């Protein structure tokens, strides 16, 4: 066992927040295990790993240990060859008190891999009946969520458990967006839960979070935000600004080309009479595409998948990203909540009796009935209560 001890200071954090602690892996090693010990009541250290060829995983503050072998790895980390040479423990100095933070790393290399931890398949949930929503020119409105986490970062559920939960909520698709890793991506196509699972990565930093959608490979969160945007564009992916007004993870990153997509409606929008998210959206981009996100981590601590629900007009759930790029989105508070959809030159207000339709210019109209068609103009429309609580958004 290789034991490394040290102390991080607040000056260290301010100088460079991400640190690499090197260690050697000998020829013939079949497994690497790293354990991090520190006083969690005093600070927070995020944990990751790099090998001689680059990224091997990230778990942030969710874990204090990981194992990497050729055939399996701790969620958040990539299985594969255990290469001889200099590896690195990545430590992000997330919170360091003025008095400093002592830490210990215990690193073990083994000539035989430990057994893979056992897992159990969750029961399949029943999907509720679909809502009666008309198709448009061969396209269908699909219900989904663009932000959720699993055991591969700081969530509590496996990918399969998350998929079963989302399907039981009535969702057609779910983007799985673990923090700073893509180790969950291979599982998305292996699991058949009656829901389309879409690949994503939540690029997570002290100055804001962004989702990169698509099978585009790992995006290096250590680089400036402009590089994330370029990476996604080169690989055919999309970038969304996450919870831009989200307390200590609000968007503060400088970025030259502002992404057109943003989580305008996040589960953290507790009081939807507060108009700041809508004002931010108007200021951010003239042609912004609004999406919603539960940011689900675990039952009881966040909105459930689909809270809010993003509706996307697409030919197939697997083509959701193309539809988002085209701006065909709407958002409701949940899968069965009041809904406002654009159907060509009309808007369909569904289960919205007594709500107020607010047009882009500010004109207002009371909706009378549970299934009402009204003329549509250009721009973002919304449904509100008489107290100005936002109930639905439509591009």
TrEMBL record:
GO terms for molecular function: 5'-3' DNA exonuclease activity; 5'-3' RNA exonuclease activity. It comes from Nonomuraea cavernae. It comes from the Bacteria. InterPro entries: PHP_domain, Pol/His_phosphatase_N, Pol/histidinol_Pase-like. Residues 144-207 form the Polymerase/histidinol phosphatase N-terminal domain. Residues 109-133 are annotated as: Disordered. This is Polymerase/histidinol phosphatase N-terminal domain-containing protein. Transmembrane segments: none annotated.
